[in-house]
Design goal:
The chain is mostly beta strands and 156 residues long. It has helices at 2-18, 89-92; strands spanning 37-50, 53-60, 62-68, 73-79, 100-106, 111-115, 124-125, 132-137, 144-155. The chain is built from 2 helices and 9 strands; from the N terminus they run αββββαβββββ. Strand 3 and strand 4 form a beta hairpin.
Length: 156
Amino acid sequence: MKKNILLFATILVCVLGLSSCLTSGLDPLPAYEDADITNFKFEHRWSIKEGTSDKLQVKEMTVDLSIDKEKNVVSAKITVPPAGEGFLQNEREKVSLKSIVGYCSLSTAARIEPIGSAPRLGVPGDFSQSPMTYKVTAADGKTVKEWKLIITEFKK
């Protein structure tokens, strides 16, 4: 019984000793005002059967990117890489702008959302409609920019 009380008291002292009551004197965190797209990438995703489960496969596309921060336009030339290393020719033939995954990098802590019929990012979508418009909201919540994504070329 004494051991349990001593163990409890030791744990209580450690928990209280490791906690902090600091509530002032901290520098405020910056509220970032940038609402820019800094990079854009595309990939093809498919699954293969392994035993009783499916295994996700991913092949990144080669992207030649141009970002115009004055006009808020991202232009992308997408090239499907050659077959090889698990990316078989029959899977390569399935790659199209109508079913690829797009994702991008943004200014620190900014948020992005599609406008109108622009595809959602991070999931397979139809990127054949060009231009596509995205709304980027800065971390401060005040700065909002509309960005156009234009696919200028798709090579297989």
